[in-house]
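User: ok so my PI wants both of these folded by tonight, can you help

Assistant: No problem, let's get them done. Here's the first:
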Amino acid sequence: MQKNRFKILFGTISVLFFVIFCKLFYIQMIQGGKYSGISNKKRIRTVDIDTLRGTIYDRNGSVLAVDKHSFELTVMYEKLFDTHSCFKQNILPRVSEVKNPALNRGLCKECHIDKATWVEKVAGLLDIPYIDVFNKATEIVKNVENIKHAVEKRNERKIRIKEETVPHSIASNVPWEKVAKFEVEMLNLPGIQIETNPVRLYPQGDMSSHIIGYVGKMGEKEMQNYNFKKKWFDSLKNSDESESEFFTQKAVSMDALIGKNGIEKIYNSRLMGIPGERFEEVTLDTMRADKLILERPSIPGNNIFLTIDTRIQGIAEKALGKRKGSVIVMDPRNGEIIAMASFPRYNLNTLNRDFAALSKNRLKPFLNRPIQSVLPPGSTFKIITAIAALEENKIDENTHFPCYGSLKVGNIRFRCNIGNGHGLLNIEEAMQYSCNVFFFQTAIILGGTLLKKWAENFGLGDTTDVGLIYEKKGNFPESRSISQTINLSIGQGAMLVTPIQIARMIATIANGGWYTKPHILQKISDYKGNILVNNKYELTEKINISEKNMNIIKSSLRKVVTDGTAKKADLEELQVAGKTGTTQTARENENHAWFIGYAPFENPKYCFVVVVEHTEGHGGAVAGPIAREILTQIGI
């Protein structure tokens, strides 16, 4: 019985295998020509669907950076490689920028005529020189080969990379009239097509250029270091590791735009989004899609909202004008940067065209001066000297020192800012008139160690982590002599700070001693509007300064404006308290002019820093009017 069952089972399986064998024989041997013809004419192609990069907004929703669609002419890599090979092997004739209708006559008609004649047609339709098309093909091929070499070196084997199988852009922002011409000729241009591609647009032009930053294609170092991609998608939630890596590979290609500076670089992983994919059947003769098989939609990038107010930013930049320097306006209650102006600037929309000239500009327009200019703070530092001496009980409000125009210490004579001196002054009067001699004598009894301690309490000589890249640290040196301590007490010598550090310092005074963290990110949302990050800071750490001493400092800063070194700036009615500063430079008759402060005096809403570099004037005369123009227009 069991033997019969086995025979039946074996027989059934044998029949099934015989049927399958017959079917395979029929398909491969009898109908093989039919299917071979189909496979030789059709192919499944994978096409990446570009995603929209996230939009950057100011605090009120004004657009600072956004993606828009433009037309691009793309060519399959195989055609570009063949053309490059012909050109490299001198199969093509020498080309010039002068259009020559007979250019293709010198091509190797035996085997290469179809490999490169498309160049003539494309150049004619685009109305550009042939050499431009050849150069673009060469550039693309070299970049792809660099990527291929880096990937193969890392994997220690030959690999066919994605860039070898996809079309590449050889012309961007193609006008609609030329797009129409290409559509007519497309059947005669296999492997060439018009695609829509996102292009980054900056509606404000050069406004906030150092903050926003810019995007560009991967450079050579980035191409050879693919590891940097892995951290781009750390923010993907609810995705397993393999899925995250898959999207990473799809997102980063040779043509992908990545952040190069500013917010565009810092939040690149948030802004990039996730590309989609389209699987389509194409005819090999024309490389045109005949049928859509499957499409995976793209996911736009996250949107970034900054604390910047575009209106106030515009006012600050206009007030600074063509003067080399910085302006910072900040909310001392929470550390939000309302405006951060730097001059010279650059137009983000024309950066590619202007880059060479900007790089050679001796004024260094790429320098983000509020966070990268390291300068002596001058008399603005006297605020720290005064607080240190008061808190360490070295002086009080009744302490008086005489000023006769200079002070001799050892063999060195240190001079005041007024030749005849200020007479007998207390701390408020010394601050009001910015008397150097008073602070020289204060520094002698205070000492360099305590001075450094209080400078560090306010964060001077250290980065603020404002949220922008390449922030400079500055320097607060150890004082090794009385002479060095004297120089440091008035913000001279080897001390170097950035404007953003001084903004943090004056904000701490304005809010009554609460340590402030300057920041420029307000929130992050996804493309549907869901809030992913809400960057609200609360003041939680207070510097240990007595209320009495804080009131002395505040009162003296108010007197600077009403009757002191900033009186001519005409800021009294705006209820401003502040401090002027002037530091000498290596160049004769050139100073760095500072004016810092806050307003309104009783309940500060804004604190500000204005510094003009390499100017002939002084703090109150040069920087003071800029502050007045800004505060008058923004409203206090």
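One down. Here's the second:
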Amino acid sequence: MAFKKTLILSLILLLNLGLKAQEVRHTFTLGDSAFLLDGKPFQMISGEMHYPRVPREAWRARMKMAKAMGLNTIGTYVFWNLHEPQKGKFDFTGNNDVAEFVKIAKEEGLWVILRPSPYVCAEWEFGGYPYWLQNEKGLIVRSKEEKYLKEYETYIKEVGKQLAPLQVNHGGNILMVQIENEYGSYGSDKEYLAINQRLFKEAGFDGLLYTCDPPAAIVDGHLPGLLPAINGIDDVAKVKKMISDNHGGKGPYYIAEWYPAWFDWWGTVHHTIPAERYTGRLDSVLSAGLSINMYMFHGGTTRGFMNGANYDDSHPYEPQISSYDYDAPLDEAGNATHKFMLFRSVIAKHLPAGQTLPPVPAAKPTIAISDIKLNRSAGLLDILPKPVLNKVPLTFEELNQDYGFVLYHTTIAGGKTGTLELNELRDYAIIIVNDKRVGVLDRRHNQNSIKLALPKGKVKLDILVENLGRINFGPYLLKNKKGITENVMFDGKEVYNWAMYILPFKQVSNITYTNKKVADAPVIRKGTFQLSKVGDTYLDMSHWGKGVVWINGHNLGRYWSIGPQQTLYVPVEWLKKGNNDIVVLELLDGDKNTLNSTKTPVLNKLQ
């Protein structure tokens, strides 16, 4: 018995020693011209990749690709609206398990730059803020306002519980943590930035903190004492001057966002930039010993309803597309591009002596699926939940709804022609009279009114409003409520007595299909398809109108025939041999009931 106890104690001791050996604590500090990892100069060659834009099952494979291109670090934002979708309810599970993302990076030999701002921009809904902040009366984001700071503190402490133990000084692989995000493009309150720093420290982020800003905003956006990283330029002399001018005449020199390409929004051309325009610039930055973070190394996909939008006084409302391919070195599906190979060749020249790059994993197999039949259907107007009744229309926020759609229903007296006006529509409305679609209004084109000729008698008026994505950048962050945000007028008179139906489409497993014909109103169609082998594929939505697709319960994102995106990426990880379910919410063309998939994406076709 004594021998058994001794053996067990010895095993426990060995296990503890093993765990301690794994938790080697590092130091990561600022030298005068370079970062110092354990006292030795360290050049960060980093690429941005966001955990929610990649299926969790594929995180490791993408990180292997990062290593194969020569990256030693991964950068990621942390997204408040994912982790606290409703006030006080936190979620760090599944695809939201950011701690697991960081741990996998460590296992793959990658350091991490963490950006929990909590404002992220990132072409992400509301710049990462949860919608419910707008229901807190008087709350002002990115400010010293008391309610905002209270919610911020609660959130960042939850993030700290997940991630602070993974900093290098605690045996993890997080090198550095960013406070705020390009704040100088928004404000200049140094007291507010100092509060950010304090909150991060109180949340356990006791390692190296930094700020990042574009050149024009670096003076306003950095906090004295922290490293002021720079975004969007790669002229070595300018980078060094701008950072040292704001950092006591010293470095290290870090380009926190280096853009080898750009993102897309609906109705405009797909952005691509030839790799050859960037190889020389990458070479000069690395030759000069600067550290760099490519935004993006791998964009992935903005699934569900999480895309953001741009808007200011100089250009119209611009909601971003579902693909976040970004013309990045790693494409939307995680395969190496021509840009990847050229950048890899540049990075290979700058490796420490004796180090070589691992081979590039082969492109993943793709499949094409033909003639997928969607033979079950349900008219949207036939499956409505219990309504909320109110004299005037309520916003999404007043209905405690985050994303998706709201159907506004009323009856009005017919027998006349007049203009229907939706004041401050956000963002896209389908107008339905007596169950027939009669027109659409689109905020992108500043459309808020339509002429209607109503039949005699009592007329059913339904207005289906889609949240196309809250603004994620600029001065209008505080004007982000969705739905019919003011009132509805017809023929010069205000329309009252509304029934509002909440349609967030968080899941589609509970829909009752009736199979009755629906041609002129939004419809949900369901089908199944059989696979004998699985692979990545791309649903061809170019012949459909506008809507959302789910495969095996996963929301793939929005499609819209206007382009430039005409396909929806389906990751192999979400397909299975045998039966697969597909559900399509089609807003404009109720007759469609078949679709195909292709082996290649179409991201550059305007219709």
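The first strand starts at residue 28 and ends at 30. The mean pLDDT is 95. Good luck tonight!
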